[in-house]
Amino acid sequence: MSENICVIPGTFDPVTNGHLDVILRASKIFDKIYIASFDHSAGFDHSVKKTMFSSDDRREMLKLACKDLIDSGKVIIDTIDETSELLVDYAQSKKAGFVVRGVRNIGDYEYEYSLSLIYRKIGNNIDTVIFPAKSEHLYISSTFVREMILYKRDVSEYVPEKVNQYIKSII
After folding, report:
1. Which of 103, 112, 95 is nearest to 31 (CA)?
2. Which of 21, 67, 145, 152 is most buried, with most CB under 10 Å away?
3. pLDDT tens-place string over residues 58-97
4. Which residues, including other chains, have CB under 8 Å from residue 104's CB and lie 6 or more apart?
């Protein structure tokens, strides 16, 4: 029997409690999870998303947030340079049959749903699994957390504790 593998893509700038919740929920379903941090996140309009944290810092924060799952061998932290590789090509290279995404609202859902159709079409039937955000994570986004950090506000409520400590150590 083959492994049940998924990819959880994102910029994770920084990783939030909402991201971690999706990862933990996926870990109950999948044998192996590749958390793919985008090195350069470009949208369909080719605009490059500016990040607050370096790709090394974002990977380190993911490692801190997911330490137990990494130690168990269930999670692998990886990087995708989205300017040179499509997510579906990355997923196929890892033998992943699924992309996992979290959604906070109907706008997120509509966006992810349309992407799921593209993934199935060009990705050899890769399926998308969508986890609706838990109510306590509905308003948390990396954008919101970055804004709070920019204005030197406490983000301990929105990011995993070890990630909060890491952020404090580098800003």
Report:
1. 95
2. 145
3. 999 999 999 999 999 999 999 887 677 899 999 999 999 9
4. 18, 133, 137, 138, 139, 140, 141
What is the 3-class SS of the chain, one letter each residue?
CCCCEEEEEECCCCCCHHHHHHHHHHHCCCCEEEEEEECCCECCCCCECCCCCCHHHHHHHHHHHCHHHHHCCCEEEEEECCCCCCHHHHHHHCCCCEEEEEECCHHHHHHHHHHHHHHHHHCCCCEEEEEECCHHHCCCCHHHHHHHHHCCCCCCCCCCHHHHHHHHHHC
CB 89: neighbour CB atoms within 10 A?
A: 14
d(CA 12, CA 138): 16
Q: For the chain, how big is the Rg over CA atoms in Å? A: 15
Displacement of CA 14 from its chain's centroid (Å): 10
Angstrom distance (rounded) from CA 100 to CA 19:
11
